[in-house]
Amino acid sequence: MSANTSISHDDVRLVASIARATSMRRAQAAGGGHLATLYRRLRDLEARIGGPLFERRGERLVPTARAEPFLDVAAAIEDRLAEVERRVAALDDRLVGPLTVTTADTLAPRVCACLKAFGERHPQARIALDVGAPMLDLARREADVAIRPTTSPPETLMGRRAGSFDYAAYRAKGGAAPDRWIGYHGDVAAAPAARWLAEHASEDEVGLRVNSLSAAAAAAAQGWGRALLPDYMADDRLERVGEPIAALRSELWVLFHPDLRANPRVRIFAEFAAAWFRKALA
């Protein structure tokens, strides 16, 4: 690259958008404009820096080493923009506007009840719920508040402990469920309950494997066998078998980024949710 070649913000955004989309057509669909223009901009940039920014592997475009500085800068820009968003949000002194909450799928019914109670008290808050296993990035404002089962919340977040809960075996209520376990696989296989089950149940004792605790609860309710579940998932379809497993006792936390501690929506919701769950889990 010649000494007088300058790199613009548009160049950084171009490389980042293609890397994120993994193809020119998907990048064009995400960003708008014409596909031919996108190709021309990439060719011009590659000519200026003296080599290709992407290589094709099957249907995917994979960044080359030349693209790495662009992607590092793009990530840094996203972090700084997220910091600006958090600082601006923290100055909002109204209890109105958007509030995004993220939680695990196992907690979705409880969180929905909590959000309904909060919404009735604060009708001008526009609440969004994102349910999924991975914790969304609160630093990048993917969500404002996370409600998560954990015994070790991230040190980069603030929060309130909202109670504790146990794990135990559950089966279909009133049914003659076979003496076998419902096991776990996929992403949930790394969860503490799944690891405990892997250590204490042989392959022959597992009649079905599922990739979520919600699926395990549904399978147990249908009579597949015993499912190892947190007690907050127990409902009128299930009955507990034996005592809770002390080694799996865990906690529920309401978490948010420190930059948002002065934001009234975040602060008041976190206090409300923590109190609501303490009562619900008692």
From TrEMBL:
The cross-references to InterPro entries, in alphabetical order and at most eight, read: LysR-type_TF_proteobact-type, LysR_HTH_N, LysR_subst-bd, WH-like_DNA-bd_sf, WH_DNA-bd_sf
Q: Write out the GO MF terms.
A: DNA-binding transcription factor activity; sequence-specific DNA binding
Q: Which residue ranges does UniProt annotate as crossing the membrane?
A: none
Whether Transcription counts among this entry's keywords is yes
Kindly state which keywords UniProt assigns to this record, in alphabetical order: DNA-binding, Transcription, Transcription regulation
SUPFAM superfamilies recorded: Periplasmic binding protein-like II (SSF53850), Winged helix' DNA-binding domain (SSF46785)
Q: Which GO terms describe its biological process?
A: DNA-templated transcription
Indicate the segments forming the LysR substrate-binding domain, all copies: 95-277
HTH lysR-type domain spans which residues? 10-68
Q: Which PANTHER family match?
A: HTH-TYPE TRANSCRIPTIONAL REGULATOR (PTHR30537), TRANSCRIPTIONAL REGULATORY PROTEIN (PTHR30537:SF3)
Q: What is this protein called?
A: LysR family transcriptional regulator
Which source organism does the UniProt entry give?
Chenggangzhangella methanolivorans
